[in-house]
């Protein structure tokens, strides 16, 4: 399909957006820091859920300088529940570079943005176009769905080269005066009209008169996506070790999944009661009572945790806390220790949620 064919989408799309675009907190600003923050949060969470996190984060860290200077635990606490914690860590790394190399202001340059830690093509294009009016198109799942339907393009959207090619094609038609508006219009059309997981609302779509998939009554034949690999299942046993009102938590390693977060003690495999008690004794704790509690499953992008759990009351501890454990009550956990949502069922059990 030639650019001249789908260049027709620009005008009706902008007209539609002027009347129907969503009024979102991060739409009332051209502050690159705020736009950056919203785009990172939106990569993993629904718009409605992001609103609260966005407001809370900005209240605590209103500027890029504040983000650069924040303590790690405050950062993880503000992100608690959003998942993908490496994203906020990368934001802080990038913010520190911006403080040192760009005088504290995100650069008004697409390639320089792309060079910052954690800023990929989508986020760079979003910041560049919305904050600085640089004509770079965003391409994500929503945009790919609209594009492949309008063009009736059956290329696998999991193909990175295809994504690049779509970005180039949209860069060729994005209006130079208001590129950010065009990108936001594509985002909203893909979220509200040509939406995922439901029948597209072609009856109200501004692109219906030239959308090839619609004209052929084959809307749901696109986008084409190769099957994802099945997720790896990891069985584990979680121990809610309790001493009075306090529960034991420990800090995860500084690298990898959920790095630097706190968690209840757990081990791989499903242990029966006897094995669980032996495990607890191995931590130099004195188990007084054990009770099997609710099982839970948490799904990550590439793996699933299938958790069996016990609450174990332990005897009064000698002065030194064993094995790097911290004993904290629910209020302390809420206020100080970032605990990932992967343990939501057990956070609830401990009274943290
Ligand atoms: S006409 Fe239908 S399939 Fe085509 S872009 Fe609009 S909503 Fe999507």
Keywords summarizing the entry:
Endonuclease III, domain 1, alpha+beta, binds iron/sulfur cluster, 2 domains, Nucleoside Triphosphate Pyrophosphohydrolase, seven-stranded mixed beta sheet, 43% helix, globular, 353 residues
Can you give a write-up of this model?
- With 353 residues, the protein is α+β, with helices and mostly antiparallel strands.
- The protein has two domains: 3-221, Orthogonal Bundle (Endonuclease III, domain 1); 232-349, Nucleoside Triphosphate Pyrophosphohydrolase, CATH 3.90.79.10.
- The chain has 16 helices and seven strands.
- It has helices spanning 3-6, 10-20, 32-42, 47-60, 64-69, 72-79, 86-101, 110-114, 121-132, 141-151, 160-173, 179-192, 212-215, 273-282, 330-335, 344-349; strands at residues 232-243, 246-251, 262-263, 265-268, 287-299, 303-314, 326-328.
- Strands 1, 2, 3, 4, 5, 6 and 7 form a seven-stranded mixed beta sheet that branches.
- The chain is globular and about 75 Å long.
- The protein starts with a helix and ends with a helix.
- The mean pLDDT is 93.
- The site of iron/sulfur cluster has 15 residues, from α10 and α13.
